[in-house]
Design a protein that fits this description.
The protein has 447 residues and is α/β, with parallel strands linked by helices. The chain is built from 20 helices and 16 strands. It has a five-stranded parallel beta sheet with strand order 2-1-3-4-5, with helices on both faces. The protein has a five-stranded parallel beta sheet with strand order 7-10-13-6-14. A two-stranded antiparallel sheet has the order 8-9. The chain is elongated and about 110 Å long. The mean pLDDT is 88. Bound molecules: adenosine-5'-triphosphate and magnesium ion.
Length: 447
């Protein structure tokens, strides 16, 4: 059912218009003044506004102008008497969609309403196509070869079609935001807005008006009324990035939105109702924040209806190669990755996860002097972080015992300037054993 707002100061005209439109199966709200009408649009979403031109105080043109600011997408049709057609044309210059001349028949009204809805649909279709584009962009989302990410993908498919709130957890740079986008663009809300808000980037006062909007004059810098992100996201998805950073007061307000789907703009008492799917991310340990009292337990449970945990890159090293290839391709260069460069990537511990991998590949592409990225190009990018300690940690976690042994021997040889007797002695093994191992692993002084 379409939602139409009718604005006319004359009771008879307003009521008959509302009746006719309701008779055609639309949901109609009627207001007796321009001021009231503008207010209605600022708290509700309409598919069409029909307004009389000549009204005391706020005229139809003023309504058109005001609505351009509040909701530029809603088409406005002005009703005009023969004498005011010139004004109707002026209204169209201000952005009215069309005008209809009094007196008119129900059929003529139907035609114009249909035309307006076609426009609405076209715009939505457009948005949808843009969404599709983004969806294709979210093919940027490399799943890789790991079973861990296959599990994440299965969860995304399932959760995308559900209206439930999703909490996406995982370390910094693991791809939580990409998961949130995939949830939106693979679900039924894909043609509606996806709105991301970083809760850590804004102070709590600013965040509140960002999320819920504010009335003009609500605070000193509020020179204009503004819709909050929850309103902008109506019908779609809101991503609350780093949700753990909200203060107590905002947590309470968010809880209410989740429970009642209702909130008020800052400086207003009028409740606004929206249909928004909430997705939140955090790289903090929320249960712990709950235990420590910095995060509301009830809010935690409201957010964590579905949990998708994105594992650290180190636990899915199978994904390193496909991700590296993806970032190489994205860089637009023809440069290749040498096999031993990949080897270095596979041994690294990835504290910065996928974002770090992306940075390292980008850097190597820029700095590499030949057509291939070498192990040295990569290792220099990893800098101090790519330390023996980092490698050792990775080996301890994953590698077969023999590789650890090889690592220790190589390190000790380096440390002692490849003096084989000293090395053997410091490892408490025989020189012959050491030589055997050097031969077996083909260890070289300057590989
Ligand atoms: N699976 C993936 N496929 C392709 N690119 C990825 C993938 N995962 C992460 N990235 C890229 O890595 C970078 C970090 O990803 P994202 O911003 O989603 O991480 P995050 O978990 O939200 O990080 P933070 O906790 O720092 O906010 C982005 O540039 C993103 O495109
Ligand atoms: Mg993020």
């Amino acid at each position: 059912m379409r939602r139409i707002l009718v604005i006319d100061d004359k009771d008879l005209m307003r009521e008959s218009l509302a009746d006719t439109l309701q008779g055609s199966g639309h949901a109609v709200i009627a207001c007796a003044s321009g001021e009231e009408g503008v207010k209605a649009v600022s708290v509700n979403n309409f598919d069409l506004v029909i307004t009389d031109l000549k009204m005391p105080k706020m005229s139809g043109i003023d309504v058109v102008k005001a609505l351009r600011k509040i909701d530029p997408d809603v088409p406005v049709v002005v009703i005009t008497a023969y004498a005011t057609i010139a004004t109707a044309v002026a209204a169209m210059k201000e952005g009215a969609f069309d005008y209809i001349q009094k007196p008119f028949k129900a059929d003529a009204l139907d035609v114009i309403v249909k035309k307006a809805f076609e426009l609405v649909d076209l715009r939505r279709e457009n948005e949808y196509l843009r969404g599709e584009l983004k969806d294709r962009l979210s093919e940027e989302f490399v799943l890789g070869n790991s079973s861990a990410m296959a599990g994440v993908a299965r969860l995304i498919e399932k959760a995308a079609t559900s209206p439930a709130t999703v909490l996406i957890t995982g370390g910094s740079g693991t791809g939580k935001e990409l998961v949130a986008r995939a949830l939106h663009f693979r679900g039924p809300r894909r043609s509606k807005p996806f709105v991301a808000v970083n809760c850590a980037a804004l102070s709590s006062g600013v965040l509140e008006s960002e999320l819920f909007g504010h009335e003009r004059g609500a605070f000193t810098s509020a020179t204009e009324q503004r819709k909050g992100r929850f309103e902008v996201a109506d019908g779609g998805t809101i991503l609350l990035d780093e949700v753990s950073e909200m203060d107590d007061e905002l947590q309470a307000k968010l809880l209410r939105v989740l429970q009642e789907k209702t909130f008020e703009r800052v400086g207003s008492n009028t409740p606004i109702t929206v249909d928004v799917r909430v997705v939140a991310t955090t790289n903090r340990d929320l249960p712990r924040a709950v235990a420590e009292g910095s995060f509301r337990e009830d809010l935690y449970y409201r957010l964590n209806v579905i949990n998708i945990n994105v594992p650290p890159l180190q636990e899915r090293l199978e994904d390193v190669e496909p991700l590296a290839m993806h970032f190489l391709k994205k860089s637009g260069s023809q440069i290749k990755l040498a096999p031993d460069a990949l080897h270095v990537l596979m041994e690294y511990s990835w504290p910065g996860n996928v974002r770090e991998l992306e940075n390292i590949i980008e850097r190597a592409v820029v700095l590499s002097s030949s057509e291939v990225i070498t192990a040295a190009d990569i290792a220099s990018g990893l800098g101090g972080v790519y330390s023996s300690a980092g490698r050792l940690e990775a080996l301890v976690r994953k590698a077969p015992l023999e590789e650890l042994e090889r690592f220790v021997i190589e390190e000790r040889l380096k440390q002692l300037g490849w003096h084989q007797e000293k090395t053997a002695k410091s490892l408490s093994i025989g020189v012959r054993t050491l030589r055997d191992k050097i031969k077996k692993w083909d260890l070289k002084k300057n590989p």
